[in-house]
């Protein structure tokens, strides 16, 4: 069997290589090349790796977390947008103030004080009702910006505003203010959202420009002045539109250190209020005010003027301001300055006693950068207690007919030419009239000192300009407030005897000259050997005794002028003396010094006077030597 198969193989081999073989249709192909394959030694491992590779190829790639978040955000946005659109167009029942439209239609310019008509249009763009709706309109009452001072129109009860409904209201307002100032009209809608008890407000501000003020004010005044020098300024009130019907006034406020002297025309109240009811568009009102400003060099003083309606609570003040203006005045150093010193003191008012010599010095100085020539200083004296017979001028001429003292280059060569920065002084003294014992009354006794200084400043060669200055001082006279004491024998031994009692009657008598005195009292201390006997019955005066301090006290209170001349004030009381044998042949003191105090109401000065003690030597009894006997 082996041989048969071998023969068959041999026959096939021969046919295969036989060129004439027709049994097989053999097709010649290209040259074959050897291909090398890497074969793993371990059959199992190769199978596992191929299996794993096939698994990996079959798995899908994982999605990143950022991609997932983006897909989620897109889906959420689309959902939220769809929900919002659904609520807005289909089922939105909430109320938003942004969907309430308030329009104010009218002129944005007006004249102050004229009626301005406006139309207010309210539209509800919500899908719900606005319930219990009220329209509130308010605007500034005057020309100032006080938020509390406003006009509120009557509240307009609209009621319910349905969705899409349009409400129109017409109003009229009157605005005040300066030219080109802006006034804001506030329009407010108060409402309840449907089904809610909460109150909501929608506000709308409508600005209006004042094209012309009803009353305009202007001030004409210097921008600088010298301290304590006369100054005047004008306030001009001009009517531009119709005059308000409710009591228009002009009010001026002054700085604290302004001294008002006069005004033309005269004010209707105090020194700062004028009536404007007669003002017309053709006749403005001009008020001229005169006074003085007292202050330091460099101080700036401010004056305010207001026009408007008088306040119901205080007629001296403007309640509703139509217009206002202010003016600043700077206090500058004078070119040729003077300073008045009374008894070496520099102040505006002085207080001296009626019998006192008053020394006055006038210091002068050139504050210019150029010389001043032909300087003249004049001191004028006046007052209800000025005594022309008691004036002494040094290096000056006293004119008793005009009560003036003059210094110039003929009396003082220094005044011929005062170079820049040069200073000097002139002086005089006077003595006021004493009011003690004067039968005629003098109220508010004083002496006025007015000093003027002027000179010539050369400019442009031979041309001169006058430079002057003015100063004034007031010397007030203190009231002469006195007390007199006296003692007289009442009972007991006379002269006083050792170890026995003698009773004396003491009288205190007041005298006062020109001024009212308040809070007055007199007190004196009794020696240890003197006893208090009490006041006499029937006296209306308040006399007490302090046993601890041993003081006799007279609570005087108020004292009228000229007590002791036109009327009497006195008090009498008893004291007793019981001398010791150590006081034999001596004159014992019955009462120590009396101290009298009080307040002078005119000069606002405290009076303190001390008067002599009294003893047993009685001045009204020449036989009473007062010496203690054995």
Structure characterization notes:
It is built from three helices and 40 strands. By secondary structure, the protein is mostly beta strands. The protein folds into four domains: 97-212, Immunoglobulin-like; 215-332, Sandwich (Immunoglobulin-like); 336-478, Immunoglobulin-like; 482-615, Sandwich (Immunoglobulin-like), CATH 2.60.40.1170. Strands 20, 22, 24, 25, 26, 28 and 29 form a seven-stranded mixed sheet that branches. Strand 38 and strand 39 form a beta hairpin.
Oligomer: single chain
CATH superfamily of the largest domain: ntegrin, alpha v. Chain A, domain 4
Overall pLDDT metric: 83
* Low-pLDDT stretches: 43-47
Shape: elongated
Largest sheet: 7 strands, mixed
Going by CATH, the architecture of the largest domain would be: Sandwich
SS-derived structural category: mainly beta
Report, as a whole number of angstroms, the end-to-end distance. 205 Å
**Percent of residues in beta strands:** over 45%
How many DSSP E strands? 40
What does the radius of gyration come to?
56 Å
Tally the structural domains: 4
Any idea of the CATH topology of the largest domain?
Immunoglobulin-like
